[in-house]
Design goal:
Blueprint (H helix, E strand, L loop, with lengths): L4 H21 L2 H31 L5 H35 L12 H7 L23
Protein name: Poly(3-hydroxyalkanoate) polymerase subunit PhaE
């Protein structure tokens, strides 16, 4: 038993086409054509982005690049606020622990503290992926 008829037909076509296709794909002309096509795609994509950004700006609306830059800035500010909040909390703990007669014991660093140590400054912003929004309840 050699298998289904469709598989036999597929194997016969593959055996005839594969060597020729590999020769084409491994040729220098194919590599050059692929590089030129990729460069043309990049140029076309960049041109479309520039033109669409200009069109949006003519309508006094933000373009996608503007939104990406704002998202990066907001993310950077969010990280900075988190880092400063953790620093402030640490200073409050140190201040209350150093006062005489304080009833609060000194605490060890939390995972928040170690997370804040790796926080990035506001200058090195990176955009975050979009988050899913909460859905409104039906009837609202």
């Amino acid at each position: 038993m050699t298998g289904p008829l469709w598989r036999q037909a597929y194997d016969a076509v593959e055996k005839a086409v594969s060597p020729r296709a590999e020769d084409v794909v491994r040729s220098e002309h194919f590599a050059l054509a692929t590089a030129l096509l990729r460069r043309a795609q990049n140029i076309a994509g960049t041109s479309v982005q520039v033109l669409s950004a200009r069109a949006w700006h003519l309508l006094n609306l933000p373009a996608g690049s503007d939104i990406s830059r704002l998202r990066a800035q907001i993310g950077s500010l969010d990280r900075e606020v988190r880092r400063l909040t953790i620093q402030l909390e640490q200073e409050r703990r140190r201040g209350s622990a150093s006062r005489p007669g304080s009833s609060q014991p000194t605490t060890e660093p939390t995972t928040e503290d170690s997370d804040a140590d790796g926080a990035q400054p506001a200058d090195g912003a990176r955009p975050r992926p979009a988050r899913r929004r909460a859905q409104r309840p039906q009837g609202a």
